[in-house]
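Private note to self, pasted from the team thread so I don't lose it. Backbone tokens:
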């Protein structure tokens, strides 16, 4: 499952990031890395952007970036 597949309010654990080094480094600087838990806070119409919370940081990602983040949904 990928981050883009989650709905508002879902929680997940990041299992893998399939991105180039520059994007992976940027995500890591925000705390988005393997093993971290996140919560989906909201989505734009058509899911062009998705807002997530990792720790106490809110991050908005484009859909193409969210498709690169593999997650495991938490119950």
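Design output:
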């Amino acid at each position: 499952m990928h981050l883009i597949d989650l709905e508002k309010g879902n929680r997940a654990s990041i299992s893998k990031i399939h991105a180039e080094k520059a994007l992976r480094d940027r995500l890591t600087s925000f705390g988005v890395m393997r093993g971290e838990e996140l919560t989906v806070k909201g989505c734009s119409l058509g899911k062009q952007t998705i807002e997530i919370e990792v720790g106490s940081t809110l991050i908005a990602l484009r859909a193409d970036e969210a498709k690169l983040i593999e997650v495991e949904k938490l119950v």
